[in-house]
Inverse folding.
């Protein structure tokens, strides 16, 4: 039993969100995210601009997280940071900052794997949110990754399926680009999908063996479909936008659920947790609930603010590693392709 209070600062800078969070034992005291708007005008993340924006944001964001938590920096027990995977230039900002800050405060430094953090976000103490029991399956669905992971323990995880090309969030964002929507397009497609007919248009699902995914073919199919239809009716997108979004969403969710069905069959595990930006999606949330009735699944969906990139998930992993005294050395480096 820990009667003592442990305060961990988590820092996340793997992509285009600069984030910092303070956790007291398992409970979040502050969760600050500065989302970089600059990428919207380019229709995707521009790595060079991302690292520059991280450099602007990191000190104010960390300062705010500590202030909002109502503690002083001297009360921190350790600094946890995202070591990877992600964009190298972005990771370097958070990594260098965390190392210097921990060194200056003379407290331990803890490296965190971003993909593990999306999964372990489920262990943040939150009223109304149950924690999964081991073993469970985790499906991480974001703009950069699509994986199914067999989770035996906090730090005993095995990737049993992943995308061989685009991530599911990319499928949303690239489809959105074809439809002339802003970046990132996932939330808008989701919103429109709820007002459209999911069976209005049919897109074939990719055939990929086992538990792996592929989304690049779907993007091409959507592109050709739109090109064909707009030749006949230049206002085709405008006239059918909600139905197109609903049909795309229906296809994508179908792909995800098919693979989850196969994964539960292969592993015999029926506890499923999702994480990553796309886990905010209403379609996947509804489909998982249906899976509870239809297939006897027990499913876990994170609180909305812990779905997209955030530092609370980095802080909780920091806390779990702190309990095991699993610290990093000062010569640690960022790792863009870090694996689970
Ligand atoms: O986890 P995240 O913030 O960053 C990465 O690590 O990639 O995920 C961002 C992705 C984007 O592709 C965005 O379009 C998608 O999550 N996204 C959604 C929704 N909200 C965010 N996709 C579908 N439906 C949503 N409601
Ligand atoms: Zn992420």
């Amino acid at each position: 039993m820990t009667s003592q209070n442990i305060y961990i600062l988590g820092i996340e800078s793997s992509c285009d969100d600069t984030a910092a969070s303070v956790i007291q034992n398992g409970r979040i005291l502050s969760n600050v995210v500065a989302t970089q708007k600059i990428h919207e005008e380019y229709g995707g993340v521009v790595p060079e601009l991302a690292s520059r924006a991280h450099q602007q944001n990191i000190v104010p964001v960390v300062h705010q997280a500590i202030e909002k938590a109502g503690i002083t920096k001297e009360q921190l027990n350790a600094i946890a940071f995202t070591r990877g995977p992600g964009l190298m230039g972005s990771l370097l900002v958070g990594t260098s900052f965390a190392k210097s800050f921990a060194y200056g405060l003379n407290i331990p430094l803890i490296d965190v794997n971003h993909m593990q953090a999306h999964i372990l976000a489920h262990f943040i103490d939150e009223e109304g949110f149950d924690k999964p029991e081991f073993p469970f399956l985790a499906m991480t669905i974001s703009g950069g990754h699509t994986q199914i992971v067999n989770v035996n323990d906090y730090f005993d995880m095995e990737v049993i399926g992943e995308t061989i090309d685009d991530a599911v969030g990319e499928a949303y964002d690239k489809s959105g680009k074809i439809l002339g929507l802003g970046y990132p397009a996932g939330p808008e497609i989701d919103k429109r999908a709820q007002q459209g007919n999911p069976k209005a248009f049919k897109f074939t699902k990719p055939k990929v063996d086992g538990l792996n995914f592929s989304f690049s073919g779907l993007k091409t199919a959507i592109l050709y479909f739109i090109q064909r239809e707009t030749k006949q009716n230049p206002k085709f997108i405008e006239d059918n936008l909600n139905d197109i979004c609903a049909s795309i969403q229906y296809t994508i969710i179908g792909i995800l659920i098919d693979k989850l069905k196969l994964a539960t069959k292969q592993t015999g595990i029926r506890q499923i947790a999702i994480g990553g930006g796309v886990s905010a999606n209403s379609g996947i949330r509804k489909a998982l609930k249906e899976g509870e009735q239809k297939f006897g699944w027990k499913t876990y969906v994170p609180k909305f603010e812990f779905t997209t990139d955030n530092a609370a998930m980095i802080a909780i992993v920091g806390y779990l590693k702190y309990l095991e005294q699993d610290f990093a050395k000062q010569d640690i480096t960022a790792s863009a392709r870090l694996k689970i």
